[in-house]
Amino acid sequence: WVIKDFKSVQHRIESPEFESGGCRWCVVVHPNVDNCISMYLLVSGCEDLPPGWKIHAKYWLSIESPYGRRAINSVARCFDSEGPAWGLSNWLHRSQLDDGVLDPHGDLKIDARVEVLHKSDPMFTWVIKDFKSVLDRRIIKSPEFESVAADGV
Predict the structure, then answer these.
(1) What's the pTM?
(2) Domain-embedded: residue 24
(3) For a designed S-S bond to 113, which of 60, 106, 108, 142 qualifies (C-beta 3.0 to 4.6 A apart)?
(4) Domain of life here (predicted)?
(5) Displacement of CA 49 from its chain's centroid (Å)
């Protein structure tokens, strides 16, 4: 992902969505928080995932330039509704942008790699209306539902 003329970017910016391990992701960059650059990996569309979702993944984020590479090397993290993004705040001080971080045109190139280690299965919820009226039955049959494959989150 290339952010053109990075020094002119003033507000949070998200990469185009990409897929890895059957999940949708994007990179979020905050270009100026306390004069630093923050970068995170976010589960894209996380607000639409079913309750209880979890994705265990290992990720690598790096800035690529003609002069070298600066990387966030990650251990495995659990992405869920409480923590749908992981990364580093204050990752790089803005004064370092002129030290070979940007390419000669002032663009910032970010590389993101994700390895999904495990995903939780979406939950099936069955609401029984007027539960008291069915208490005398021995068996109550749920509606049919489909199980989503392991990569269907």
Answers:
(1) 0.75
(2) yes
(3) 60
(4) Eukaryota
(5) 12
Number of domains in the chain: 1
Distances (CA, A) of 100 to 39, 70, 106, 145, 148: 18, 10, 10, 54, 46
Strands 36-43 and 54-65: unpaired
Owning domain of residue 51: 2-134
47, 50, 87, 134, 150 from 53: Cα distances, Å: 10, 6, 20, 31, 12
Q: pLDDT of 31-59, one tens digit each?
A: 998 999 999 999 999 988 888 899 999 99
22: its two tokens:
């059957």
Q: With beta carbons less than 8 A apart as the criterion, state whether 101 and 7 touch.
A: no
Structure letter (DSSP) for residue 147 = P
